[in-house]
Amino acid sequence: MSKRKALGKGLDALIPASPTGAAAAEVPVLKKGAALPSGPVLCPIEEIVPSPHQPRKRFDEKALAELARSIKENGLLQPILVRPREGKGARFELVAGERRWRAAQRAGLKEVPVLVKKIDGDKALELSLIENLQREDLNPIEEAEGFRWLSEEFGCTQEEVADKVGKDRSTVANALRLLKLPAPIRKDLEEGKLSAGHARAILSLESNADMNRLRQQILKHDLSVRQAEALARRMAQTGAKPAKPAKAKPDVHVRQLEEDLQRVLGTKVSIHFRPGKPGKIEIAYSSLDDLDRIIARLKR
């Protein structure tokens, strides 16, 4: 089955192919007060701030260090997409490329190639989300939060979200279900302690208490996804409350004996009769005097 083509609407069109060789050395420096350029320019790295709507909350330190080494050796091969920012402080806000911006800082770059586009807040948010959701290294909760943002902020159906990021609708639907998990399990997914497969097995259980019990077993015994699914099925089967058996009607002869004893003793008498097994007789009394009266009658 071929992978769906992402309909991100803009990132490839907004970010042109990177200049290489001599052309790369000719990227001009962005000057303060100058008109916005149409092509890539070099911008001081401190003039850029990340988007507050970035879906990625965690950056893999090892991967970031590797990217920083590559940038240090080869430079930043593709410009970062930014938009003008109003107010004091930095002049630009990131739209796409925060991971490369962070790695460039680590690599010690003072300037980075940027492409400046006038993009309104909603469009910038949409592009930032799509750029991140098309990547493969978001954790499951970051991905789910991104899908939810696209759905809620832009009124997209699950099918429309899937078209924008180039994924199947079932992938989007399954990701959104992860947000229904209890907070400790969502944190495990963010930290990589549990996989999305483990999470789906946990979601097959109905109560939060059962979900947390399965989570504990997975972490304690390092269960695979298949083992977690099997355990979830067993928990679902044994967790069902059995139907209460119908109360057996008392034997007519036993009932007659109870009534005879009650007339003789003047108090409530219960006979617990089990065919072929020991039984018992319960005689009720209201006080010590009543107990003496019953004993006296039994001794006659």
Calculate the mean pLDDT score and round it. 78
How large, in whole angstroms, is the Cα Rg?
36 Å
The tally of helices reads 14
Oligomeric grouping of the chains: single chain
Biggest sheet layout: 5 strands, mixed
What is the spatial order of strands in the main beta sheet? 1-5-3-4-2
CATH C-level of the largest domain = Alpha Beta
CATH architecture of the largest domain: Alpha-Beta Complex
How many runs of DSSP E, i.e. beta strands? 7
Q: Which structural class should the secondary elements be placed in?
A: alpha/beta
N-to-C SSE string, H for helix and E for strand: HHEEHEEHEHHHHHHHHHEEH
Distance N to C terminus: 93 Å
Low-confidence stretches: 1-25, 240-246
What does the overall shape look like? rod-shaped
Helix content: 40-55%
Can you give a write-up of this model?
By secondary structure, the chain is of the alpha/beta class. Strand 3 (80-84) and strand 4 form a beta hairpin. The strands form two sheets. It has a five-stranded mixed β-sheet. It folds into three domains: 1-175, Conserved hypothetical protein from pyrococcus furiosus pfu- 392566-001, ParB domain (Alpha-Beta Complex), CATH 3.90.1530; 181-236, no CATH class; 252-294, no CATH class. It is built from 14 helices and seven strands. Helix 3 crosses helix 4 (98-106) and helix 5 packs antiparallel against helix 6 (140-154). It is rod-shaped and about 120 Å long.
SSE topology:
Elements: H1 11-14, H2 22-25, E1 41-44, E2 48-49, H3 61-74, E3 80-84, E4 92-96, H4 98-106, E5 111-116, H5 121-133, H6 140-154, H7 158-165, H8 169-177, H9 183-191, H10 196-203, H11 208-221, H12 225-238, H13 252-265, E6 269-274, E7 277-283, H14 288-299
Helix pairs in contact: 3-4, 5-6, 6-8, 7-8, 10-12, 11-12
